[in-house]
Specification:
Distance between the termini: 182 Å
CATH topology of the largest domain: Neuraminidase
Shape: elongated
Number of helices: 2
Number of strands: 46
Number of domains: 3
CATH superfamily of the largest domain: TolB, C-terminal domain
């Protein structure tokens, strides 16, 4: 399986009391020990060089802390476990016996190459088993263990690292040179080795990487493996068969397939990478110049994606999942919809869930099994068939990977009646509307109402089908008593419920009967007639009183006129009597005569006489008639 993305995760660095490795996505951080002494005093990394992993299936991680002559041991989950002291000296690379050979009693043992001229074998807990030195060793620098049989390969600089004097020896599991001295020769400062599951030996030196058969024959016409010709300090073979190469000059780690095809380059910028170990999808790299161990997560495209059967299906939700190999780190989700899945689309995408590692486990039905935690999808319609599949993706995948399409059908939902306000209420009947979601199945609904006797009565039933809330009715209720308050509610039932479901209770009051209306009208009429008669009598009395007042006023006025006439007549008589008793030229009469206006002249035919103009008498001859 190829690696598409390797993401730096410098995650946990042996935190206090836990000792977990630190990961960072931006810069390399040294893993330092700050936990309690387990089992010896713990110190920070000091020029860590060699790194080995094994044995399977629960690999441990061994770091050769060269500056303080210790080996620090971690579990496969990168949790610090212990450390043990090693021989003082310049330790280089290390190898761990992870062979599958049944008789290999050294399985899990750790081999460390010391530049002083020896390779020391330790148990996983730090007990020294043997020391390989003397014959065939001058300046050993690297160790690799054949995973098939436990044979030990040791790379040596040769005399003072002179060009072409380096070589590789092969030892048996017991550490004796019983197989081959100088199995491979002509190397210049070899510093890294690794063996794959087929026994091919990869050797990194000042001149790059070469691949050899188990008998020491140079492969590929001795052409540089993967084209790597730069000084190589670190080599490892991953569980998938890829070869990891730490190039000093490139300040990076390159990944190749077992045939040398380039896959990926990562950890760029790390100067002088040395020991490399791969546990599952995690890559560990020592860097002595930075006193650090870097941790990377090797991502592979998700694989083995299998859609699981829907669990805990209700009318509105379901739990959907399955199983998958996350390829190191991935996110998964489900796509679902009412239409059949097409080649690449299967409806709505759920929220994504992040997972790390490879094969996932979860609890289903109370049993721990291989699966991902189910995703709950909600908002579904009742009694509806949905199509779905499980999807996974990560940075290594060119496109999301999905499992086979499956389907499930949601359950019928309980009906949800909603009682409406009564309409067209008469003395003996009413119309009751409402709303109802039938829940995806045929649903019977009716009105139930409370009689004055406290007994309940039901209307005629009707039926509806659907999956959403909609108006129903109105439903007629009849045979009611006039002028009576009734309590009522809408009722519905379908296959999802064992008992009818009631809407909220409401009330209405029937109208009066015709007889009651007429009686009420009559009762309302009598007071009005009496009031009108009283008002008429009052108005009559008021009119009579007004007439009497008017007549009295007229009589008073007539009397007043009589009084005025009598007074005037009396005054006149008195005046005449007074004038009669007054001599001429005196008194009021004289004054009155004097006061009379005197005409200045009389018109033609009149003469002034006694200050008055009187007609002029004509003069005739003869006797004047008397």
């Amino acid at each position: 399986m190829s690696v598409r993305g390797l993401t730096l995760r410098l995650a946990t660095a042996l935190c206090a009391l836990a000792g977990a490795l630190l990961l960072s996505s931006t810069s390399a951080l040294a893993i330092r020990f700050v936990g309690p002494p387990l089992p010896a005093p713990t110190v920070a990394f000091s020029a860590p060089m060699g790194l080995g992993v094994g044995p399977s299936p629960k690999e441990e991680i061994f770091v050769e802390n060269n500056g303080v002559s210790t080996v620090d041991v971690y579990g496969s989950n990168a949790i610090f476990k212990a450390e043990f002291p090693v021989v003082a000296g310049y330790g280089y690379q290390m190898g761990v016996d992870d062979s599958t050979a049944a008789g290999d009693t050294s399985k899990g043992n750790v081999y460390i190459a010391f530049l002083g001229g020896s390779v020391v074998q330790y148990t996983p807990t730090g007990t020294e088993v043997r020391k390989i030195e003397g014959e065939g060793l001058v300046e050993p620098t690297a160790v690799a263990v054949d995973p098939r049989n436990g044979d030990v390969y040791v790379a040596d600089f040769g005399f003072q690292g002179e060009p072409g004097l380096g070589y590789v020896n092969e030892y048996g599991p017991t550490g004796t040179l019983s197989i081959a001295k100088e199995l491979i020769t002509g190397l210049t400062q070899p510093e890294a080795m690794a063996v794959d599951s087929s026994g091919h030996l990869f050797v990194g030196s000042l001149n790059g990487v070469l691949e050899y058969e188990e008998n020491g024959t140079c492969m590929n016409a001795c052409a540089a493996f993967g084209g790597v010709t730069a000084k190589t300090n670190g080599l490892a073979v991953g569980p998938e068969g890829n070869v990891y190469v730490g190039e000093e000059g490139a300040n990076a780690i390159s990944v190749f397939t077992s045939t040398g095809a380039p896959v990926e380059t990562f950890a760029t910028g790390i100067a002088n990478p040395y020991g490399i170990g791969v546990v599952g999808t995690t890559v560990y790299v020592t860097n002595p110049s930075a006193n650090a161990v870097y941790v990377f997560e090797t991502l592979f495209p998700p694989s083995g994606v299998q859609t699981g059967a829907a669990e805990e299906v209700t009318a509105a939700s379901a739990n959907l999942g399955g199983k998958l190999d996350a390829g190191g780190e991935a996110e998964y989700y489900v796509e679902y919809g009412t239409a059949s899945c097409s080649a690449s689309v299967c409806g709505t995408k759920s929220a994504a869930v992040h997972v790390s590692g490879k094969v996932q486990e979860c609890v289903l039905g109370g049993v721990l099994q291989e699966c991902v935690a189910p995703i709950v999808v909600g908002g579904l319609e009742p009694n509806t068939t949905y199509h779905y599949w499980l999807v996974a993706t990560n940075a290594a995948a060119s496109k999301p990977v999905h499992g086979d399409a499956m389907e499930f059908t949601t359950k019928v939902a309980a009906p949800s009646p909603k009682t409406g306000l009564a309409q067209d209420v008469t003395a003996t009947s009413a119309q009751i509307p409402g709303e109802l979601n039938p829940g995806g199945a045929e649903t019977e609904y009716y009105v139930e109402y409370l009689l004055p006797s406290s007994m309940t009565e039901e209307s005629a039933a009707a039926f509806a089908n659907g999956k959403t809330q909609a108006s129903v009715g109105p439903i007629a209720v009849s045979g009611l008593q006039p002028n009576t308050t009734y309590y009522y509610w809408l009722v519905a039932k379908n296959s999802a419920v064992s008992q009818p479901v009631h809407g909220e209770a409401r009330q209405f009051t029937t109208q009066l009967s015709q007889a009651e209306v007429e009686a009420q009208a009559a009762a309302n009429r009598k007071p009005a007639e009496e009031l009108a008669a009283a008002n008429a009598a009052k108005q009559k009395l008021e009119a009579e009183e007004a007439k009497r007042v008017e007549e009295a006023a007229a009589a008073n006025a007539a009397k007043q006129r009589q009084y005025d006439e009598i007074a005037a007549e009396t005054a006149g008589l008195l005046r005449l009597e007074a004038e009669a008793n007054t001599p001429k030229g005196t008194g009021k009469r004289a004054k009155a005569e004097k006061a009379k206006p005197k005409p200045a002249s009389c018109r033609k035919g009149f003469i002034k006489k006694k200050n008055k103009c009187v007609p002029k008498k004509s003069k005739k001859k003869g006797k004047v008639k008397k």
